[in-house]
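Tutorial handout. Part one gives the primary structure; part two gives the three-dimensional structure as tokens.
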Amino acid sequence: MTARTRSGELRTRRNSSASISTLSPYGSLRRARRAAALGATTLLLAGCAVGPNYTQPTTEISADYKEAGQFKEAQPSDAIAKGKWWEIYNDPQLNALEEQINVSNPSLKGAQEQFLEARAALRIARAGYYPNVSVSPSATGIRQSQTKVFKPSVITYSDYLIPVDASWEPDVWGRVRRSVEASRSEVQASAADLANISLSLHAELAIDYFQLRGLDSQKQLLDSTVASYEKALDLTESRFRGGVASAVDVAQAQTQLETTRARDQDVEVQRAAFEHAVAVLIGKPPAEFSQPQLPLTGPPPAIPPGLPSELLERRPDIAAAERRVEAANAQIGVAKAAYFPVFTLTGAGGFESQAISMLLTGPSGFWSLAGSAAQLIIDGGQRRGVSEQARAAYRQSVDNYRQTALSAFQDVEDNLAALRILEQEAKTQEGAVAAAQHSLDLSNNRYKGGVANYLEVTTAQFAALGDEVTAVDILTRRVVASVLLIKALGGGWNASQILNASR
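Part two.
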């Protein structure tokens, strides 16, 4: 067999039940037309795609949020910023920290690489649309034996070959198209995952930051309380030296002062942990980051929750779950396409000559065209199992999508309720703080007038301090709940942002 024949020969599938082949070193017009007709017929068949077309699954949603009826409407300036939602808090330090997440956070960078990996997989799937073409030029020098039974007429000769081989499987049943659909949906789901991770990281940073500021408020309160208790201890010791107060009063004042100092120092431990958490979120070693003290002041801004149906477009995790439903639906088509035959078109051509000077001339050219169809007859139930597996995966993805949507509505309702109730609790606690301070003032006056002992004063002091710390804690929880509500609403994200992710 000559090199020319080896290059021009079509390699057909061994398990094919039908094949159509046209092989010629120089060809004829009739055979070329026959091969072209075969290719045209295959292209016409390529218009169909087996498997179900995708329709977005439905999920049950209410007409309105249960907790939104009494929720205060936000002013237009308080609307969630598109993308940089944290700017509604008007906190320059928070804004500066949030900007560093996109640059330095390792978790976000890992999610970005995962998205790029999914997009590369889409490019691989799209490659199935196109033929594979290869070229393998060669130059061979041959000397044949002169003692063979049939002595060759030519003992020594050269063979120069430039073959081009091409093969293509037309997407007759839509296997490639369904694979591309699945990959495209995975890319969009990965883009939504990236947005969800970004939203979660930014929200986590805001939560840690506001909790740190809440601890700064507690620290400020405890510092002032320690200073007040130091003055009270000095006064009690002075009264003891004057014979007006007892040693018990001095001991009680000393005990209360040291207890409050220990509580003040314990706040520093909690603050350090939140400061370290912020450092890690912005991609810095904790030893290289320090956040100046800034007490938390003022309630959180009001946040418009919007309509329940809008949540399906504003939550990236819902969008990711929905995109994976489409990917699973496309995989059903891929599994179903395995029941149909595979058509293959192959061709070869090029130039071959024993003299390099004549290699690229017309007489040195050769070509071949062929088509084949392969159909798997017996597979032991493999295709049926794959098809059932794909359908089960689709149903599971639909259930996951609906569960994600329900969880999203729960998140919104939880934080709307938290903001509403905490606002009422803050007003009640404000009255408790005022009442505790009034009680403390009365106890101090009674003690200075010699009417009450110091135990009454310390009891009033503990009550007043406890109520003030509780008020600070409620304020911190309100701000944190507002961040969680923004996260539950999807921040400033919208599902339209993933449409171009697969390009």
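Part three, for discussion. The two ends are 48 Å apart (CA to CA). The chain has two domains: 1-45+133-170+343-374, 67-130+171-218+283-340+384-498.
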